[in-house]
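Hello forum,

I keep getting stuck at the same step: I have a sequence, I want structure tokens, and every attempt I make locally crashes halfway through. Rather than fight my setup again tonight, could one of you with a working pipeline run this one for me? It's a single chain of 189 residues.
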Amino acid sequence: MKKTRGRGCAFFLVIIMVITATFVLSDDWYWKKLYPFHYQSMIEQEAARYNLSPYLVAAVVRVESKFRPFAESKKGARGLMQIMPETGQWAAEQMGLADFHAQKLFDPHVNIRIGTWYLAKLIEQFEGDVIVALAAYNGGQSNVQRWLAEGQWQHGINSVDDIPFPETQLFVKRVLTDERRYQDLYAST
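Reply #2:
Ran it on my machine without issues. Output:
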């Protein structure tokens, strides 16, 4: 008799867990905790300035730094959008930003502004191809240009798995997935 009661309780607990998981996983509140949109107004402003999707920019920030303004990579990339100091200096000069120094990459507004500008420039350079631009953002412009010139990568949505650098391949996949999630969660708010 006890075995039957024990199985019934276990079955009941499984049913409760499935119902709870279904509720939680379908609830926007839960997903917004996993995909926060910190600095939303800044991101929207800079994305609009450079004619980019704010969800794409938010996805880059999430993948690069998880919205941590003082994040720094082993290679020295800094801030929310993980910008290398040399890239930041070059971009600041191109943008006409006065008094730039590498420490400013930890300032969320400066970092988002430069990172969004840089992403827009890469998209323009690669003739509107967001996937190639994302690969260049992560793997470097010269590497992507070489892959394309040497036929190592036939770019496009169906060829992300063929990106020669595994880290860049994963970056592009994660950004594209996160962009869709941000659009689903925040487009109507």
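The chain has a mean pLDDT of 90. If your local run keeps crashing, start a new thread with the error log.
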